[in-house]
Every structure is written in structure tokens, then in C-alpha cells.
Amino acid sequence: MDGTFLFGLGTGLSAGVVIAPLLAVAARTGRFALLRPVLVAVGATFAFFLVLDAVLESGSREPTVRTLGILTGVLSLLAAGLITWAVFEIHRGARRRAYGPAVRPLYAGLVVAAAALSVGLGGLGQARFIRAAVRAATGEEASLLPLMGVVLGLSTGVVVALALFHGLLRIRPDRWFFTGTAVLLTVVGAGVFAQGVNNLQFAHVFGGDLTPVYNVYSEVPLDTWYGTALTSTVGFSPFPTALQVTVWFLYPVPVLLLLLAPIRFGRSVGGAGAEE
User: Fold this and answer.
1) Which of 52, 22, 31 is nearest to 114 (CA)?
2) Are 181 and 239 in contact (CB under 8 A)?
3) pLDDT score recorded for residue 275
4) In the chain, where are the structural domains located?
5) Across 20-153, where does the E strand assignment appear?
6) How many CB atoms lie within 10 A of CB 263?
7) Cβ distance 133 to 147 under 8 Å?
8) Alpha carbon distance 78, 75 (integer Å)
9) Neighbouring-strand partners of residue 274
10) Which helix (H) or strand (E) holds 265?
């Protein structure tokens, strides 16, 4: 499958699986106004990395592969942290049945920041690819195919994210909606965290053996739509290191244990049952 389409698809999916559930929670609790700042954050992040890449390209020194790996790794860890924070905000509101995460200003800030970081995970590499597609469309031997591939891939990712958004909003009752959305974000966060650790490991920030613990590339190649989808949504790698696999499985365990713990009931001052 065309590499430019897969690039656009991966970019759209990696941001969409983070933004769609977070906005679904906001919509379910009446905070529709969050859509505008999220769109502004997404656009500003794209513009920032495009400008930064252009500035670096015009300078005397370009960032090394190690520098790009460290940048992507750090952004991934920050994004995973924000996703986890948002998950517990969702859980907090669901336990109190006041749907606090959507009415607290903190949740709005988390959504905007997580949206920006999810778009920026590709960083300079993503910006460089897009600028190359634009140059191919405007150069002497102009070809619109690379740019069309990127746009079509991004559009497909956006459509999938919209389908996820509307699908989540159909979940009833509210308890299942909030729990299901939080679990989904936990799985996505595990993938983002594991990819960040992997980038930092290959940049020699973290130690550990870089030899893959298994290799299923022939079964799930990255140059296919399903390979791209798995990598972009849950952090799948056909040839992961031992540290990457360990992190992916250990990250969600404490989060899911807290999310799925039974809700305890106490007694309010007036004698009526209330959740702690």
C-alpha cells in the first residue's frame, strides 16, 4: 500500500484514538465548547513543528537521529502521563456520579494538552514528511500523488476517530460508558508509553538489550493498513524489545485494577447512601 497514505493514516489514528474518547466524555457531560480549543491546539501543534522543521532545515545543523528519538520519546511519555491523568479524572467523576471530569476546569486542560501532544508525537519526522509531500506537489516535476496520499490517509484516520466518538456516545448506561472509555484510554496510553520507552531505548537513554524478543513482521508488516493501524492505536510492534513488552504489560495493570475496583458506598450526613 502507498507509503504516503499509510503515513497519513497512522498520523490520523494515533491522534484520533486519544482525542475521540476524551471528547466523548466531554460531550456526554455537556462540555461541547471543548471542541474549539482542541482544534486550535491540534492546528497550532502541526504549525509549530512545520515551522520548526523549516528553521532547522535552513540552518547549518540538522537534528540527529538520536535527538529526534529523544524528542519523540519524551513527548510520548508526557502524552501517556496526561492520558493516565485524564483516565483517573474520568474515573473520579464516574464514582461520584457527578461526572466531575467534564465540569472541572482541570479536565478541559487535560483534553487540550493531550490532543496537542498526541498530534506532536510524530514531531519533526512527521513535519518533514508533510513538507516533502508539499514540495513534490509544487516542484518542477510536480506530482500531487504524495500529497493526495497524505490527505487521504489523514481523512481516513479522522473518519475512524469520528466513528469511535459516536460509537462511544451510544454506550448505555453511563456507568458502562465511563468505565469503557477509561479502559480504552488505558490501553491506548500503554501503547504510547511503550513506544516512548522504545524510542528512548534506541536513543541510548535507557539501557537494555535491543534484540527483539520476537519477530512477526512477515505476519504483520508495517507497510499494510492493519500493521499501521495496530502500531498507531495500541503501540503494537512486530519486533519489540524485552523492555518495550514489559512496559506495555506492566503499565495498564495498576491503572485497570484501580478502575475496575468495586465502588464503595458510605452514608451521607443526612443518612442517605452516598458514594465515597
Assistant:
1) 22
2) no
3) 41
4) 3-262
5) none
6) 11
7) yes
8) 5
9) 266
10) strand 265-267
* pLDDT mean for each 10 residues of the chain (276 residues): 86 94 89 88 89 79 83 93 90 62 69 90 79 79 83 94 96 87 94 95 91 95 94 94 94 87 48 40
* Beta-strand relationship, 265-267 and 273-275: antiparallel
Q: How far apart are CA 143 and CA 188, in angstroms?
A: 36
Residue recorded with cell 491546539:
41
C-alpha grid cell, residue 78: 508526557
DSSP H or E stretch at residue 274? strand 273-275
Question: What one-character DSSP code corresponds to residue 239?
Answer: S
> What is the per-residue pLDDT for 266?
43
Task: Read off the amino acid at residue 73.
Answer: G
* C-beta separation of 13 from 233 below 8 A: yes
What is the reported pTM? Answer: 0.87
Q: What is the pLDDT of residue 103?
A: 47
